[in-house]
Design a protein that fits this description.
about 110 residues, alpha/beta, Nucleotidyltransferase, domain 5, 3 helices, about 30% helix, globular
Length: about 110
């Protein structure tokens, strides 16, 4: 599955979904994540509600991880079938937390 992380500098997840100018795209195989590419979004700093631009850039991803998303962005992501995870910090730490949680949730109960 593909993960999209909103990052201003390629090192930290530090952006709001609708204001993100860059998304780091990773391929996640259930065990580890491998960096694929950096996708850029053309955001106008003067314009409000630009979440649709971000959604268009990551529409092939199953998960987006960003600091937060507004209500319209959340509904748009949900309608597109993209899971929203709100987190922030160094990319390595954010990926580690996501992978750890993913593996925990996939464990059998008994």
């Amino acid at each position: 599955m593909k993960l999209a992380l909103a990052s201003s500098n390629g090192k930290s997840v530090d952006l709001h979904f609708g204001k993100a100018r860059n998304f780091l795209i990773f391929e996640f195989d259930g065990e580890k994540a491998r960096f694929l590419e950096n996708r850029k979004v053309s955001i106008d700093p003067e314009e409000k509600h630009q979440w649709e631009k971000s959604l268009e850039i990551i529409k092939d991803c199953e998960v987006v991880i960003c600091v937060q998303a507004g209500m319209r962005g959340k509904v748009g992501l949900d309608n597109a079938g993209i899971k929203l995870i709100e987190d922030e910090g160094p990319v390595e730490n954010v990926l580690e937390r996501y992978i750890s949680h993913y593996k925990f949730m996939k464990k059998p109960l008994f």
